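fyi for ur records
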Amino acid sequence: MEDILENALIEMEKYAQLVNLNLGSSNIFKKANDWIPSETDLTLTGDSSNNDELNNTLDQQQTILNAIQEITQAILDGAPLNQILVMVMETIYSNLNFHRVIFCFINKGRTSINARYGFGPDIETIVERFSIPNGGDDIFNLSLKQAKDLIIEDIPSGKADNLLPKWYKDKYTKKSMMVCPIVVKNIPMGVLYADSILPITEKDVNRLNQVKTLRNQIILAIRQSN
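which gave:
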């Protein structure tokens, strides 16, 4: 438990430092620093003097940080993994301007990558149908093989046609998409998928980092559940 807690707090601290937010008022951060071994230093230092200059961006960042704290608390309370997955995806969908967000697990036989939960238009139909052979050359398998977040910036250009299931590309894809692998102790477990009507690019550092931080909460939850 101490290892899970320490990693969760590190993720919170990294995100807060990234967006220049102060964790000093965080109850879970204060309590957790008392729970973990004393040699672990997770005290956040940083200049929050610029907070007054931030506007809507700060509000969004604070909302994300609040969600991360809630998710971390749920993990520590032993909440079911499915509940954590829904919390993470709902946070991404509601706050980061994605059209759809889908979580996919590799099945027990490790033969396919199947959608389990999602948010967005037509999501029930998509989740029911979304199943991709494990080990293929599509973007989902490539992300898992490389243990790397992958982005297709311009799906309509056709340059990435071979990376998507035809039924999905023809009917459901939007302008851009990203796939984040879920790898736990070097074992591929699944992927987090998000698509957008607006372009997703490597230059969109803040939004990408927010997704990565929330993806890491899923990894912590899976570790805790095992």
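The two ends are 11 Å apart (CA to CA). thats all i got for now
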